[in-house]
Amino acid sequence: MTEATFSSSPKRDAASSNRWKRYSASLKYAFYVILHPFDGFWDLNREEKGSLAAANTIFILFLLTYVLKLMYTNFQFVMVPIQYINIYQRMASLAIPFLVLCISNWALSTLFDGKGRFKDIYMGMCYALFPYVMIQLPCILLSHILAYDEAEFYNVLISVSVIWSAALVFVALMQVHDYSPGKTLIVIIATVVGAMVILFLVMVFFSLLSDAYAFFASLYKEIRFRLN
């Protein structure tokens, strides 16, 4: 029993080490993707250069960066009443639309002969968010160094991070599905429309569910009142 435990321990350590190396390499690969997007996104899934764990890490960092930006950026650049900020609500306001966009694109890919799986779409879009994290996270500290007259420099960096990430999303979807630029643009427009339809249907569903619950609750109270 003891010998088996000792003999299996090095194997577990080696497997754990390999997983960590794989995760580290796939996370570092984000730097290559943002600088060489066409080759980077093509190899992300096809050559297994990326990983779901790294994509989740970038996505979580994206949400944290957004919240930290609202809470800790100098009031000269971002004026948000901190006492009214709900961290979880703010994160959900980004996470839910992002995931709905992934679902919408995956659903429409079957109509547009897309080659990407949901995992491929999600990973590609997560890796595309890396410039947002890479630029806006240091900008939180930078906002406490710059004067108000230097706000233009701060605004340029913020704009670059958003435009860069948006451009990477375009390339990611184009490479994941093996589309032409024109077809990618059409699919992105259809994806946004599809996401809006999904959100509308979800809101209608929960609204009807709420009304049904209220109706049956009032009916139950009425029956109890009459029986008593």
The number of E-state strands comes to 0
Average per-residue pLDDT, rounded, comes to 87
Distance between the termini: 68 Å
Q: How many alpha or pi helices?
A: 8
User: What is the approximate shape?
Assistant: globular
Domain count? 1
Structural class: mainly alpha
Proportion of strand residues = under 5%
Q: State the low-pLDDT regions, or none.
A: none
Main beta sheet: strand number and arrangement?
none
Helix and strand string, N-terminal first?
A: HHHHHHHH
Which key phrases capture this entry?
0% strand; mainly alpha; globular; 228 residues; 8 helices; single chain
Q: How would you sum up this structure, described in words?
A:
The chain is an all-alpha fold. The protein contains eight helices and no strands. The protein has one domain (59-227). The chain has helices at residues 2-35, 37-46, 52-72, 87-109, 118-128, 130-142, 151-177, 181-227. Helix 7 packs across helix 8 (181-227).
Summary, kept brief:
The chain has 228 residues and is mostly helical. It has one domain (59-227). Helix 2 (37-46) packs across helix 7 (151-177), helix 4 (87-109) crosses helix 5 (118-128) and helix 6 (130-142) runs antiparallel to helix 7.
